[in-house]
Amino acid sequence: MKLSDLKPAYGSKEKRTRVGRGHGSGMVKTSGKGGKGQTARSGGGKGPNFEGGQTPWFRRLPQRRGVSQKARSTVIFRTEYAVINLADLASWEKGTVITPQSLLEAGFISKLKGGVKVLGAGDAPAGLRFQGMHFSATAKSKLEAAGAAFKE
């Protein structure tokens, strides 16, 4: 087989209709466009925004200038934290310094994202030291009661 032998499958390429080429073709005079008028002309027709003569959608609405911020996603402005609960910290020994990096290495979080936030679910382990982390109000009060130390 050679490249010159390749042909498309029979019937997959339909020959285009040549209009206005004599009576034998069946496409004479109006060339399949019917009678006279707007739609018989080249580029004729009403266009996609025409609504049958009623005031079109873009004129019925109040004046729209620019893009509304209401439709815009606000997710891009949020800081997304990797979260961990107090109950997950129970296995850490007293006096250990817990940093986002140490949590990542221990497998408690999978990504650092915009930082690590400790939430207040569970009992607070005693005597831990935290560095460079964020806390919910509940978690912070439980940890302070358990004697934790915080450093930014």
Report on this model:
The chain is largely without helices or strands and 152 residues long. It has a domain at 100-152. The chain contains three helices and six strands. It has a three-stranded parallel beta sheet. A three-stranded parallel beta sheet has the order 2-4-6. The radius of gyration is 36 Å and the shape is elongated. The protein starts with 56 loop residues before the first helix and ends with a strand. The model has no long low-confidence stretch (mean pLDDT 90).
Q: Given the structure, what is the number of helices?
A: 3
Overall pLDDT: 90
Task: For the record, give the distance between the C-alpha atoms at the N and C termini, rounded to a whole number.
Answer: 74 Å
* SSE string, helices as H and strands as E: HEEHEEEHE
* Helical residue percent band: 10-25%
Biggest sheet architecture: 3 strands, parallel
How much beta, percentage-wise? Answer: 5-15%
Adjacency order of strands in the biggest sheet: 1-3-5
What integer value in Å does the Rg equal?
36 Å
Question: Which runs of at least 5 residues are low in confidence (pLDDT < 50)?
Answer: none
Number of strands: 6
